[in-house]
Model the fold of this input.
Amino acid sequence: MGQFIYLYEVATSYMGGLLGINTYDQPAVQLGKDATYALMGKPGYEAMAPKIQAVAKRDRKYVI
Done:
């Protein structure tokens, strides 16, 4: 199973190279980290927290 996972990782890397896409650039991952830091109150991310809280919805149906 591990060999199949590795095969797909390598195939993704090669295909990204052929298409001119950086497969290791993950802007959405960084944005998620920044949003988490903002909601945790980490210094330097205070300006982002109000933007996130303005669109965050909590549905009681999904809250445990």
Observations:
- The helical segments are 2-19, 27-40, 49-55.
